[in-house]
Specification:
The protein is an alpha/beta fold. The strands form two sheets. Strands 1, 2, 3, 4, 5, 6, 7, 8 and 9 form a nine-stranded mixed sheet that branches. It contains 14 helices and 15 strands.
C-alpha cells in the first residue's frame, strides 16, 4: 500500500481528439507546482486519470500546491496497491477506513470502476460484496446511496486505488492552452482578480504596471510585485514590465483639460501595454474594469479607451459588483496586499470632476495638445522600463 493522489479534471474530458494536449499541459503544470515543495514526485497519466506518487512529502503541502493548478477540480489522497485478490483488497480498505475514521459511526456508499475488464468481479459485484464486508467490520455504519457521509471509491486498473476524501481544486483550464495576454496590473483590488480569472481559462499572463515616482513610492511598486507573486502561484511566472509613467502623466496634466485626465491617461496606458504585448507575443489586453464602478468605467469611457488599442480587451469583471470582486480577491489571497495604503499612479492625478460620457472626437482633439512631446515621452518610457520575472 502506497499513499498517492488521484487528480481529477473536468472540462478537459470534453476535448475530443485534442484531449491529450490538454492532459499533457496539465501534467506539466502539476509538475511545476510540485517542484516548489519538499519531496520527490512522479506524475503519471493513465487513460482518463492523473496520479501523483511520491516520497518524503507533506500531504497538506501537496494538496495546497495542487489546489492552485488551473484544470484540477478534485484532489483525492488515495491508496495505491497491487492486485493480490479481492479478499486482500477488502482487508486493506477496511484497515484504511479504521485508520481514517476510527470508531465513529458513518454512512457510506461504495462506487467501484472496473477499468481492467479481466478482473473477476464486475463493478456492481464489487459494490455489493465490498459494501457487505464494510458493514460487517463496522456494525454501527449504514449504507446511504443518496447522501453518504463517505463515498468509498475503488478503481480497478493495473494497480488498484481507493479513497474517501476529496479536496476541491480551482477548475478551469491549464495555463498555456489558450494563448497569452497582457494584464494592466495596478495596486488595487480589481486587476489581480481579472488576471486570475483569465488565467483560469488557460491564458498565460504577462503584466504591465505604471509607476510614477516621486509621486508614488517604492513601496507602491513593491506592493504590485507582491501582488504579481501571489498571482503567480496560480498562473506560473509573470513577466512584469514596470513603466515610469511620470513624464507622460505630467504632460497630460499640463496640456489637456483636467476633466479628461483619467480617460486620456487610460488611453496611453493601453498604448504602452499594447507595445509590450507585441514584444511578448500577447494576443489581448486584460483590465480589471467593472461597468459603472468609476467615471472611467462608464460605457462611453470604455468605448473611448478601447479605441486606443488594436488588440482585443478582456474585461472579466465587467458585470461584477465590488463585493463580488472582493470575495474572489480574499479567496485567492490578494486582498490584504491590495488594500495596503500605498497609492499608485491611477490615484495620484485624479480629476475632481471627471468626464463620465466622453466623446472620442473630443478626446482625440485634446490629445493633439501632446503632439509635440508624446512620441519622445513614449520612447523614453519604453527604454526606461524595468522588466521583472516574478515567480
Amino acid at each position: 500500500m502506497e499513499k498517492a493522489f488521484l487528480v481529477k479534471y473536468g472540462e478537459i474530458g470534453l476535448k475530443g481528439k485534442n484531449r491529450h494536449y490538454f492532459e499533457e499541459t496539465l501534467v506539466k503544470r502539476i509538475e511545476e507546482a510540485l517542484s516548489k515543495i519538499d519531496g520527490s514526485f512522479k506524475v503519471t497519466r493513465p487513460q482518463g486519470r492523473i496520479f501523483v506518487e511520491g516520497e518524503g512529502f507533506d500531504q497538506d503541502e501537496v494538496i495546497d500546491a495542487l489546489s492552485k493548478v488551473f484544470g484540477v477540480i478534485w484532489i483525492c489522497p488515495c491508496i495505491m496497491t497491487e492486485d493480490t485478490g479481492f479478499d486482500d483488497l477488502s482487508d486493506q480498505i477496511i484497515c484504511y477506513l479504521k485508520e481514517e475514521l476510527k470508531d465513529k459511526p458513518f454512512s457510506f456508499k461504495v462506487e467501484a470502476r472496473r477499468a481492467r475488464k479481466n478482473y473477476p468481479f464486475n463493478s456492481m459485484e464489487i459494490n455489493r460484496e465490498l459494501g457487505g464486508r464494510i458493514l460487517d467490520a463496522f456494525p454501527a455504519s449504514s449504507v446511504d446511496v443518496h447522501n453518504p457521509d463517505y463515498l468509498v471509491e475503488v478503481e480497478i486498473r493495473e494497480r488498484i486505488n481507493f479513497h474517501i476524501f476529496y479536496h476541491k481544486g480551482v477548475g478551469g483550464m491549464p495555463v498555456g492552452t489558450a494563448g497569452k495576454a497582457m494584464l494592466l496590473l495596478s495596486g488595487g483590488i480589481d486587476s489581480p482578480v481579472a488576471g486570475y480569472m483569465i488565467a483560469r481559462r488557460g491564458v498565460t499572463i504577462d503584466a504591465t504596471y505604471f509607476h510614477a515616482p516621486p509621486y508614488t513610492s517604492e513601496r507602491a511598486k513593491q506592493k504590485v510585485v507582491d501582488l504579481a507573486r501571489i498571482l503567480s502561484r496560480y498562473t506560473g511566472p509573470i513577466k512584469l514590465h514596470v513603466v515610469n509613467f511620470t513624464d507622460i502623466q505630467m504632460a497630460i496634466y499640463q496640456k489637456c483639460p483636467h476633466d479628461e485626465l483619467t480617460i486620456i491617461m487610460r488611453r496611453y496606458m493601453m498604448t504602452i501595454a499594447e507595445h509590450f504585448a507585441g514584444l511578448d507575443g500577447d494576443m489581448a489586453l486584460i483590465t480589471g474594469e467593472s461597468l459603472g464602478q468609476v467615471a472611467s468605467q462608464t460605457m462611453q469611457s470604455l468605448y473611448v479607451t478601447d479605441h486606443a488599442a488594436s488588440l482585443p480587451v478582456f474585461r472579466p469583471l465587467i458585470g461584477f459588483d465590488k463585493q463580488d470582486i472582493i470575495d474572489i480577491s480574499e479567496k485567492i489571497g490578494t486582498y490584504d496586499t491590495s488594500i495596503l495604503p500605498y497609492e499608485d499612479c491611477c490615484t495620484i492625478f485624479v480629476a475632481k470632476h471627471p468626464v463620465t460620457k466622453p466623446r472620442l472626437d473630443v478626446i482625440e482633439k485634446s490629445e493633439t495638445h501632446l503632439d509635440d512631446v508624446i512620441d519622445d515621452l513614449l520612447e523614453k518610457a519604453y527604454e526606461s522600463t524595468e522588466t521583472i520575472l516574478v515567480k
